[in-house]
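Regression test case RT-17, inverse folding.

Input:
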């Protein structure tokens, strides 16, 4: 212990303008030293990128300066401290943040105007190295993109509201001075001087620092994935003292004239000293307003007691009986009314429960007050007339029902409403017993408000103990600045004062705000002997002391500091003494004390003798404290905590120190524990909550052997501390401020003190800072939230935040998880203006805090992640040896559809009115045959947005139109057979006619989605690219599109002079072609199918005539299609199965196709569903985007649709055409929503296709319903499938992708060894079928590599079959269901695209799983997408709410991904709705998104780089 009592030491303390509650010069020096140490390392953190409009400042009128703000308990800081030494030492711009970056990063729009060729001027020479490295990183992906060529990375394309119009990303504001060609210069579309990649490089640099607990090397594949438990450090300090002995307070003296009950005191003074002043209240200017004498207090309390018992109900049915609980609702400015109400209740023997005045329906914590009122069974509230008028009312004048409150009857207690008691009525004043006298409210760490019941005898004993400890005398004057409704303000200022006939001068909080010196003036004027204050009052008085020269405080014999238990109080006391010693303040009168709602006063320092040395201080090591042991700090003064004592135990009490968690074992003498107290003067229980009461009020400490030390019960105080030399009590914190991180304890107040010691504090308000912990991934994580001053710049805030991180890291050796700054005056406040911490935490976790700046540091503080997995060497081991159809003792994972050959028999083909398959292998022949045999049969009908048929085509009409197109091709195009022809049409019958026209001419059609006329810049380059890649010799299109292709607007984005021949087919010649081409073999190409994959690759596949007829035959069988059928198709007709169903299937099978272009749904949502109902359609095909549009847009309108007669009971199968994992939640919501319209829940199913085979599965009429299984996500990351029960933690539901089509075989293969896998194993899906595509169509010379995709052989097993690799991961599972042939059904489950999976920490993640979690994180996340960049996980979230919610998403997204996927998010990007690009099938284009992000083209609302 070092004594710091020397005068010399004090003179050097300046009365600074910082909140001196948390002021300690030593600590400030410590913080400076810690930051200086960091400065040498020069870490540059990437500053977040924020769109200007997103920097929402609270409106000016809300930004009250701190001293007048809406009552903040401990703010202050009226003038900034002069000695800003730290500020100067940190002025250098390299510190912590690279200035050069900030020039270009404050606003995304400012920097994105730079064209890619030139670097911004502010990115000076010192940045070239970083850029060079960023460039190298930017190009690392090139090698990976060899199959098939990625040639669309820079071609964005807009889409409507999640509709189906684009193949590429919709990037807003792309034309900011960036020419497309300059973007193409870099191989994968990442411009060279991309700001984003520089920032990410910076982020990577900061993450290169070693983490504190080093991670163990390898992850054992077999072990369950568990949290990494840090090994205990052998150097951890351990307690070495002997077991503590309970400390006894002095005996409680017996004085002859002590009253038998507190009410008896009032009765005595009321009768004998009626003129003696009891209470003086002040007006807002600090002048005395009125004085209540003991006589008045007695008579008014008597009237109130009489009124309560006799006048509220009838004689037979009184409203109140003795023992009932009553709420006291009085404002802080009206102590007089409160005193009368409190003593009136005591005299009536009803139990007063003082609570705060509710200000609005949404008060912070109002619901918890409701819980208190409910648990106490309160139905009546007493209040004053003025207060009642001020309560919020409903329009008809009733008091609003506050959130969570029971219904209350309000009773006004102003004197004019009270009745004088009748002559014969006397209050009943029994001797104090164990009945409850009053209930004091207390909020727990979680925010629940409980009522501590104080019995009559406890109340009296406590007053006696305080009288003895503080040596109160009759007639003294006491100045009380504290809240008189609870705690020390009530105990000293209302109860003990009346017992001793003390004159109390009550200084309300409002007066303190207007005139911080008012309490000091009151002491001076009325020569008060005792003052009752908190540290903030000392601080405020000190700030304002220069205004008053002639103040004398020599009358004070006790200055009671109510929050002296806060370890940071020592500096306030010192500084106050330093200023006011010259005004007569004696050093020995400062009396810190410690109290808790449960045990009441725990300890108080008695006033010392004049001139006696002041008690010593404890200088403790923070490191020791975090391990719960007391070590005098010797070596590192940076991490020291100086604590003052709070005096001795209260008279008549017994104190022990026990371990704060687990059983209450006595601590050793050098160990910090929770203080427990046995005393008659404490609370007795939590009213109405017997369970919680036992753990707090009935604790029996045990010794190290576990045996109880006696049979007396102790009460937990919630204070952490130890007993020092001379039985002095020291408090180092509270259990409610305790943060337990990785087994070490940190105190919230200590962290606040460190944060506030970081200069310059021009960024935040003092006293408006909340520190709490949230539980994320099996440990507590520390969050600091502070209010930012309105004039603080982005740069200052970020700099301050980064310094706070370093200071806390250095001094407390703990990492912060999140540091958030919110606009001024937006944190939830307690009634007296402090920050409501539990409510702040609730807002943080709920995403309603709306920060204006945020810094997340999960990389530094999450040290318990599982070890990364080491990939096992790949090799075919003996376990994989095959025996028959078994691999490693399991059935081989393969499945097949029905045989196609079975239907060759002629009988059946006549029955199905099917044209003889053997004769016509070609679609052109099929159409000709239909035109001859059934010329008037309508094959196609196209609907518009109103649901009317705009055009139809019979077999003959289609044949004739196709002939005309053939003639035009041969005439105007000079086309040779085998040439590629691009078909550029909106969805419709023209497209179909042009397709058959090409077949008749022997050309190879390539269907391309037309460019979007409103967004040519983004959509035309894709068209151009397909035309170039396919080497098309001619374009067939409509007149309108032909004009568009040659327009000036088009010329801005592509070279319009080099288009191939363009033929418009709107007016055709009447000529017929001389002959119709018939291909020599069925292996010849029928058409090319171009599509942009989800990884952003443009791939064209070659489809032969044989494959087309096999596919059509397969679909015909599976769906039982024949001439009398009608099928509704709402799909994009440009690629994949959508194209086959739109253009080809009807001609083959003869059914009628009703065509609904998906874009029509945007203007008329119910179009598709009403068509199904109107035409009584049995089979329909749609895409996920269509289903999503209907679910989101029509979900609320099912009643209206039903009223219009919409009926979906006719639908037997509704198939979603997709190339992805089935979206189970969407399908289920769709089925549930439209169940009311008659949709059968069995109808909805999915199809699955890929580039190598357009349709592998399709749920037709035959076969069992699709099954759903639940797999364990943790195993899936290890490439294993473990089936679990529904509802198991970490389970993922997967739906079967439909029945496998006839003629198709699939097998699950290990993508590395190319060997077959067993049943229920995850592997790549390989497919063998007559309708496989024949190969990729490409201009690059990598045919051999790509041919391999289509002609693979297994490495062992069945080496002769040729398979095509789909690139999708999945598994086959044999189910209990039977298929049509009566065999057990093999179900195929698709998990995801191999190319899209993210390899992180040695595990394989599917983006969709992370995105599902992210979208659940906050109600305003409309959609999300994830990708990786240099091993960092980047999450892009679309914000559907207001921009001020943008920063709320950052911690929630980080939390949910950490919790559910055990991954740390590196970058969170918040963007506008519709920014995530989607292709025509509704699949996210994540690679496009990544390229746009790196090229800085997303115009994000906010980009957060997690440290």
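Golden output:
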């Amino acid at each position: 212990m070092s004594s710091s009592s020397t005068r010399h030491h004090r003179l050097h303390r300046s009365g600074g303008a910082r909140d001196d509650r948390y002021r300690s010069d030593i600590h400030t020096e410590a913080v400076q030293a810690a930051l200086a140490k960091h400065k040498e390392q020069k870490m540059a953190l990437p500053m977040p990128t924020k769109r200007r409009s997103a920097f929402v400042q609270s409106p000016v009128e809300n930004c009250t300066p701190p001293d007048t703000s809406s009552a903040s308990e401990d703010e202050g800081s009226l003038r900034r401290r002069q000695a800003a030494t730290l500020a100067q030492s940190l002025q250098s711009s390299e510190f912590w943040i690279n200035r050069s970056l900030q020039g270009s990063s404050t606003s995304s729009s400012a920097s994105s105007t730079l064209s890619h060729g030139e670097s911004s001027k502010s990115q000076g020479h010192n940045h070239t190295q970083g850029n060079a490295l960023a460039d190298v990183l930017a190009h690392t992906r090139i090698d990976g993109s060899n199959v098939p060529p990625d040639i669309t990375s820079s071609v964005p394309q807009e889409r409507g509201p999640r509709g189906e119009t684009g193949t590429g990303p919709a990037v807003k504001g792309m034309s900011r001075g960036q020419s497309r060609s300059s973007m193409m210069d870099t191989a994968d579309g990442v411009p060279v001087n991309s700001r984003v990649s520089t920032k990410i490089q910076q982020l990577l640099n900061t993450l290169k620092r070693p983490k504190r607990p080093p991670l163990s090397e390898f992850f054992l594949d077999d072990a369950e994935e568990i949290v990494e438990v840090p090994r205990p450090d052998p150097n951890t300090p351990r307690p070495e003292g002997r077991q503590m002995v309970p400390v006894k307070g002095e005996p409680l003296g017996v004085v002859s004239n002590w009253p038998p009950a507190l009410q008896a005191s009032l009765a005595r003074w009321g009768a004998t000293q009626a003129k003696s002043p009891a209470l003086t209240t002040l007006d807002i200017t600090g002048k005395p307003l009125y004085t209540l004498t003991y006589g008045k207090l007695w008579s008014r309390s008597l009237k109130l007691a009489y009124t309560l018992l006799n006048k509220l109900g009838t004689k037979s049915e009184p409203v109140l009986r003795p023992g009932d609980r009553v709420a006291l609702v009085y404002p802080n400015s009206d102590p007089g009314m409160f005193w009368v109400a409190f003593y009136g209740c005591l005299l009536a023997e009803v139990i007063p429960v003082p609570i705060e005045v509710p200000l609005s329906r949404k008060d912070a914590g109002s619901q918890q007050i409701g819980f208190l009122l409910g648990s106490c069974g309160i139905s009546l509230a007493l209040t004053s007339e003025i207060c009642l008028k001020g309560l919020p009312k409903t329009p008809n004048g009733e008091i609003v029902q506050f959130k969570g409150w029971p219904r209350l009857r309000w009773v006004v207690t102003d004197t004019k409403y009270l009745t004088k008691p009748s002559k014969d009525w006397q209050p009943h004043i029994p001797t104090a017993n164990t009945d409850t006298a009053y209930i004091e409210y207390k909020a727990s760490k979680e925010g629940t408000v409980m009522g501590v019941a104080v019995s009559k005898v406890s109340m009296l004993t406590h007053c006696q103990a305080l009288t003895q400890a503080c040596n109160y005398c009759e007639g003294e004057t006491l100045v009380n600045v504290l809240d008189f409704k609870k705690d020390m303000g009530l105990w000293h200022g209302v109860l003990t004062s009346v017992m001793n006939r003390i004159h109390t001068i009550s200084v309300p909080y409002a007066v303190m705000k207007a005139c911080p010196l008012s309490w000091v003036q009151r002491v001076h004027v009325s020569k008060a002997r005792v003052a009752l204050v908190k540290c903030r009052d000392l601080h405020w008085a000190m700030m304002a002391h220069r205004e008053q020269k002639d103040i004398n405080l020599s009358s004070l014999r006790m200055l009671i500091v109510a929050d002296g238990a806060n370890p940071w109080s020592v500096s306030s006391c010192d500084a106050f003494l330093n200023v006011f010693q010259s005004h007569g303040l004696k050093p020995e009168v400062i009396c810190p004390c410690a109290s808790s709602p449960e045990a009441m006063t725990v300890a108080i320092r008695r006033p010392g003798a004049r001139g006696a040395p002041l008690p010593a201080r404890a200088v403790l090591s923070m490191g020791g404290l975090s391990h719960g042991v007391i070590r005098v700090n010797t070596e590192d003064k940076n991490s020291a905590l100086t604590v003052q004592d709070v005096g001795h135990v209260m008279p008549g009490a017994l104190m022990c120190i026990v371990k704060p968690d687990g059983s209450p074992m006595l601590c050793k003498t050098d160990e910090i524990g929770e203080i427990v107290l046995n005393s008659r003067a404490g609370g007795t229980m939590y009213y109405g909550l017997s369970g919680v009461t036992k753990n707090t009020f009935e604790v029996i400490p045990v010794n190290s052997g576990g045996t109880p030390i006696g049979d007396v019960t102790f009460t937990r105080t919630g204070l952490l501390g130890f007993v020092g030399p001379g039985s002095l009590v020291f408090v180092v914190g509270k259990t409610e401020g305790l943060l337990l991180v990785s087994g070490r304890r940190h105190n919230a107040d200590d962290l606040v003190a460190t944060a506030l010691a970081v200069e310059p504090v021009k960024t935040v308000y003092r006293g408006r800072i909340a520190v709490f912990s949230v539980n994320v991934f099996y440990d507590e994580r520390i969050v600091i939230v502070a209010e930012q001053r309105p004039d603080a710049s982005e740069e200052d805030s970020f700099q301050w935040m980064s310094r706070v991180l370093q200071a806390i890291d250095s001094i407390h050796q703990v990492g912060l998880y999140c540091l958030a700054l919110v606009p001024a005056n937006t944190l939830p406040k307690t009634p007296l203006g402090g920050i409501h911490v539990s409510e702040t935490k609730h807002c943080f976790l709920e995403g309603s805090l709306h920060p204006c700046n945020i810094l997340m540091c999960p990389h530094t503080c999450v040290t318990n992640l599982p070890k990364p997995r080491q990939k096992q060497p790949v090799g075919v081991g003996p376990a994989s040896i095959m025996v028959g159809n078994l691999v490693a003792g399991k059935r081989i994972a393969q499945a097949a559809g029905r045989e196609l050959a079975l239907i060759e028999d002629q009988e059946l083909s006549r029955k199905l009115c099917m044209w003889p398959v053997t004769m016509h292998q070609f679609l052109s022949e099929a159409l000709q045959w239909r035109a001859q045999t059934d010329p008037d049969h309508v094959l196609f009908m196209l609907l518009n947005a109103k649901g009317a048929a705009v055009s139809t085509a019979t077999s003959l009409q289609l044949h004739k139109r196709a002939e005309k197109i053939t003639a035009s091709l041969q005439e105007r195009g000079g086309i040779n057979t085998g040439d590629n022809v691009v078909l550029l049409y909106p969805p419709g019958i023209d497209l179909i006619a042009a397709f058959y026209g090409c077949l008749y001419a022997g050309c190879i059609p390539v269907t391309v989605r037309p460019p979007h006329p409103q967004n040519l810049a983004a959509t035309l380059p894709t068209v151009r690219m397909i035309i170039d890649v396919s080497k098309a010799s001619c374009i067939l299109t409509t007149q309108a599109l032909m004009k568009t292709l040659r327009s000036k607007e088009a010329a801005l984005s592509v070279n319009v002079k080099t288009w191939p021949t363009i033929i418009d087919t709107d007016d055709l010649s009447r000529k017929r072609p001389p002959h119709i081409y018939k291909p020599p073999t069925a292996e010849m190409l029928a058409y090319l199918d171009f599509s942009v994959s989800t990884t952003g690759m443009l791939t064209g596949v070659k489809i032969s005539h044989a494959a087309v007829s096999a596919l059509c035959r397969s679909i015909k069988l599976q769906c039982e299609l024949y001439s009398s059928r009608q099928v509704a198709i709402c799909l994009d007709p440009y690629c994949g199965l959508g194209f086959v169903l739109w253009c080809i299937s009807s001609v083959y099978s003869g059914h009628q196709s009703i065509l609904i272009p998906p874009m029509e749904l945007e203007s008329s949502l119910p179009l598709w569903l009403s068509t199904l109902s109107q035409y009584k359609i049995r089979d329909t095909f749609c895409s996920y985007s269509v289903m999503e549009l209907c679910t989101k847009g029509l979900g609320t309108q099912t009643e209206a649709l039903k009223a219009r007669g919409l009926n979906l009971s006719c639908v037997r199968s509704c198939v979603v055409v997709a190339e992805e994992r089935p979206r189970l939640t969407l399908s289920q919501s769709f089925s549930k929503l439209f169940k009311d319209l008659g949709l059968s829940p069995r109808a909805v199913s999915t199809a699955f296709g890929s580039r190598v085979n357009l349709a592998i599965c399709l749920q037709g009429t035959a076969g069992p319903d699709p099954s759903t299984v639940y797999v364990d996500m943790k195993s899936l990351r290890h490439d294993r499938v473990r089936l679990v029960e529904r509802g198991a933690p970490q389970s993922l539901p997967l739906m079967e992708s439909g029945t496998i089509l006839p003629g198709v075989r699939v097998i699950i293969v290990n993508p590395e060894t190319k060997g077959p896998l067993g049943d229920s194993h995850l592997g790549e899906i390989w497919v063998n079928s007559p309708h496989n595509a024949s190969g990729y169509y490409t201009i690059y010379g990598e045919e051999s590599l790509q041919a391999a995709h289509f002609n693979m052989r297994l490495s062992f097993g069945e080496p002769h079959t040729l398979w095509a690799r789909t690139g999708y991961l999945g598994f086959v599972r044999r189910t209990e269901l039977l298929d049509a042939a009566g065999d057990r059904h093999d179900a195929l489950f698709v998990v995801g695209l191999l190319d899209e999976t993210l390899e992180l920490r040695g595990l394989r993640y599917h983006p969709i799983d992370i995105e599902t979690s992210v979208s659940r994180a906050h109600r305003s996340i409309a959609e999300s997408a994830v990708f990786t960049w240099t091993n960092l996980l980047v999450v892009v979230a679309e914000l559907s709410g207001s921009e001020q919610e943008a920063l709320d998403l950052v911690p929630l997204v980080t939390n949910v991904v950490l919790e559910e996927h055990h991954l740390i998010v590196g970058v969170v990007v918040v963007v506008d709705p519709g920014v995530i690009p989607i292709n025509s099938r509704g699949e996210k284009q994540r690679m496009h998104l990544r390229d746009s992000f790196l090229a800085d083209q997303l115009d994000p609302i906010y980009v957060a780089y997690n440290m």
